[in-house]
Amino acid sequence: MQKIGVLTGGGDCPGINPVLRAVVISAMQKKYKVIGILDGWKGLLEKSYVELGLDSVDDIINKGGTILGTSRTNPYKIEGGPEKCKKNAKALNIDALIAIGGEDTLGVATKLYKDGINVVGVPKTIDNDLAATDYTFGFDTSVNIAMEAIDRLHTTSESHHRIMVVEIMGRHAGWIALFAGVAGGADIVLIPEIPIDMDEVVKILKQRRKNGKKYGIVAVAEGATFKDKSFIIQKEKLDSFGHVRLGGIGELLGSKIEELTGFETRVTVLGHLQRGGSPTAADRVLGSRFGIGAVKLVEKKKFGRMVSLSGNEIIDVPLEKAVGKLKTVNPEFYELAKTFSESGR
Ligand code: F6P
Q: Which of 136, 168, 169, 274 to mutate to test the pocket of ligand 1 (most atoms within 8 A of CB)?
């Protein structure tokens, strides 16, 4: 009988539990055993796990977070980490390991596959920045949360004749800010891919005032930076993948807008609100399809591969292709936001 181990690593994301539910249900139908490794790669290093059966995944399709817990542990940053992972996978009699994660978790999965573990990947991240898949689950939920926040900020912004800056997640890619900004009718969308030009921001906001719009919404991705390199935020905390703890761009941008325009400006940081709570229907369905797809890859012994969404089809791609390069917002997509900004309305 086959035994599958499944783990979730990196930031949590709405839609993980639907993946886990689908993995367990489809694995049971094939008479496989499933264990859940707790807290990402940390669990494999420490051999901490739970047996997963149909009861474990009852009523979790609508639940955010991950029932297995997660961490940002990188075994390749720990002495003897990869060897320990290999040894423990063997000791746990795991025939295949399903790793649900983003760039970092799947980067580790790719290396462990090369080091001899039978790994299959499932793409997860609210940021939607994983290459080799059209979309990741979690993205749709976070876009909808951010869009709703923008809608709410709109009405208060209008009543008080204020500019509202809303800081949205997105470390390297501005997909969430772009989609939520466009859907929420933000006046300006600022993303990590394009350094912020304050002259342009001021011009658009002033033009709006001239057009009689005394309020405005500026959506900024937390990973955005300024064209003027003297505008920086000091960040020191690093995780084990070397990423700084982001946050603070909204405050800096808000104070610059107020200083340069004289318009009252307030800032809202959405932070982890965008990752919590129930997944949308789209993320539940995508997560379920990915989970079933991952078990099919195990059945076919297609290791070192990741399930992926291509158009409306679930396909599989080499893990290596997914982690080599991030999928950032391309200029054509950004045009979408610019078209509305430049209208001055
Ligand atoms: O990778 C997803 C993400 O939510 C990013 O948008 C954000 O920068 C990061 O995780 C935050 O991570 P943490 O939960 O460690 O604060």
A: 169
